[in-house]
Amino acid sequence: MFENTYFPRAKKYWQKGKLHDWSQALVHSMAHALHYGSSVFEGIRAYNTSKGPAIFRLPEHIERFFHSAATIKMQVPYSKEEIARAIKLVIKENDLESAYIRPLLFYNYGNLGLVPKYSPVELTIAAWDWGAYLGPKTEKGAKVYIVPWRRIHHSQLDMTAKLGGMYVQSTICGMEARSQGYDEAVLLNLEGNIAEGPGENIFIVKDGVLKTNDKRESILEGITRASLLEIAADLGIKTHIGPLAKEELFQADEAFFSGTAVEITPITRVVDGSNPQEEKKEFTIGSGEVGELNRRLSKSYQNIIRGKIEKYEKWLTYVNE
To answer: How many Cα atoms occupy the beta-carbon half-sphere of 196 within 13 Å?
Structure first.
């Protein structure tokens, strides 16, 4: 029996072409993905609007979902349109006005060799009511820890794909940061520059310029990241894409995470633990408070995802249409 304690309002999920009760399990303990992380996933959000729940940038998420699947040689057993319909169905069946949505493709039960020759690809889709990923830190600002481990390099794996097994590094780093009393981790890349958080992109602000890095810095170029760059340009905010040195983060006027789960969460303090041989150093970002540009972008973003700005309705897929 599986309770939905940490999946509020989740009553049903979709798998094998139909809906199942949340407490019903369908995956064997010898499923390939359970042992080797041979899965791909997306994190998607839907928000309450005057027209009912609306999914933010659903086509872009599904497009990346298929890209990730191709990276791990998966033949997706459904079309993009079928997956979009199934996502809408899950939101409706769970009677959700807003939701976090998790589609997952995985190699299921078959063989247990490293190469899943006889393990079929299956799709499961779930949705539940999930608030801010970092809770009150979304409003007040997070204290982050630069971990000593470097982000997987883009020369080692395709970092533009959301591969399940790759996220074990994110889990380890996130747990390490929290075990030492910090809100979230930050990873450097092999070049020693800022890469990203365990599941978030990073922006800084310096002298009114909004800056972030790109895939050459071993990051996943998030859909929220791309949205914020477009929103900033429309607001007349100067943007720059390039490497982020540690010192640029420490000396920034503002800094924040972006991502589907975390949305826009300010970073107000950074502790550098990237070199285990050196004493940790703490830095305050700007004034140590949430910055003005952060607030401005957050306000625009919240209005956009709730369908209050007509120009950006192109980014919304209404569930009830």
So the answer is: 28
Report pTM. 0.97
Of the candidates 188, 198, 229, 199, which has an alpha carbon nearest to the alpha carbon of residue 212? 229
Could you list the pLDDT tens digit for every one of the 321 residues in the chain?
799 999 999 999 999 999 999 999 999 999 999 999 999 999 999 999 999 999 999 999 999 999 999 999 999 999 999 999 999 999 999 999 999 999 999 999 999 999 999 999 999 999 999 998 998 878 899 999 999 999 999 999 999 999 999 999 999 999 999 999 999 999 999 999 999 999 999 999 999 999 999 999 999 999 999 999 999 999 999 999 999 999 999 999 999 999 999 999 999 999 999 999 999 999 999 999 999 999 999 999 999 999 999 999 999 999 998
DSSP SS3 for 126: strand
Bridge partner list, 207: none
3-class DSSP state of 286? coil
Contact 221, 241 (CB under 8 A): no
Question: Could you give the number of structural domains in the chain?
Answer: 2
Angle at 245 between CA 240 and CA 251, to 5 degrees: 85
> Which residues are identified as catalytic?
162
CA nearest neighbour of 123 among 180, 159, 176, 80: 80
Is 170 contained in some domain? Answer: yes
Q: Both 68 and 166 in a single domain? A: no
| Helices (runs of H) and strands (runs of E) counted in the chain | 8, 17
DSSP class of residue 23 equals T
Q: Which amino acid is at 234?
A: D
Domain boundary among 107, 128, 149: 128
State the first-to-last Cα distance of the chain, in angstroms, to the nearest integer: 35
Query: For residue 28, what is the domain's CATH number?
Result: 3.30.470.10
